[in-house]
Amino acid sequence: MLHRLFSTLAIISGISITQSANAADMTPGETFTDCDHCPEMVVVPPGEFTMGSERGEFVLNETRPETPVHKRTIRHAFAAGKTEVTNAQFGMFLAATGYRPSAACSKWLGQVDFFGGNWMDPDYGRPPTENEPVVCVSWHDAKAFTTWLSGRTGERYRLLSEAEWEYVARDGTQSTWAWGEDAGLACKTGNVFDLSGAQTDYAKEHSSWEPVNCDDGFGRVAPVGSFPANGFGLHDLGGNVWEWNEDCSLWLYDEEDINEEPNQVTGHCDLRSVKGGSWFSMISRHRPAFRGRDPETLASHIFGFRVARDLEQ
Q: Rounded to two decimals, what is the model's pTM?
């Protein structure tokens, strides 16, 4: 539990650095950690996939396109976090650095509304646990974590690009969802807004969309890794919490972007990419192609992140 977390952080924050993973010796699906208590990483091979869809959605008074549909090539192997970053890992970062994360968190109350919570008080109706994904973190908070992790390990940690994220989330498929065309199969692979979720007081008061007709056993957030890994060896890409990506989100994809590189800007970015859906999202938002686009300063009780790490210098 988090109330025990800070009693051990003095020990944990003095982590010992282990030998860094050697890309030349690694195979797809292999797991490693670069230091004690660091995120467990999985080697992702290069490959090609078709990004986007013709579907699109209408979100908060705007049309959210997912076009043009185009081919992307992931040119280089990279490592992705096996799970989303946990409360314990984020707490370790704060204890080691004194960094001050977002102090105001938002939740859906018929519209986005700030309720004043934070990562240790995300309004679950109970304290969050160490092995649940950290939430109420902005894109800046996620980036600060990767910067610290890079310094601790001597390796380049970062967020996944939007293309890398969709590549691993699709898991070699081109179906509507990674698990296929039947929305009712969602509960086999992730924590989504389901029959259990619809029974919470929060959902009864604030959701205007129907739950998917299955039951994953969790009314709100789930501990990371509670569901089977996909073919890449990664958990929770669809559901649990939304995941911040590196990209400054483009309204339409640039067809000249044909690889895994994120769309970068100098200075402030109005909207950052966020993908994957959450335990409270309508099922269509769990499609790998769906494009979340939110202010980089936004912290939400359904937003977290996953880290990536370069394997080639």
A: 0.92
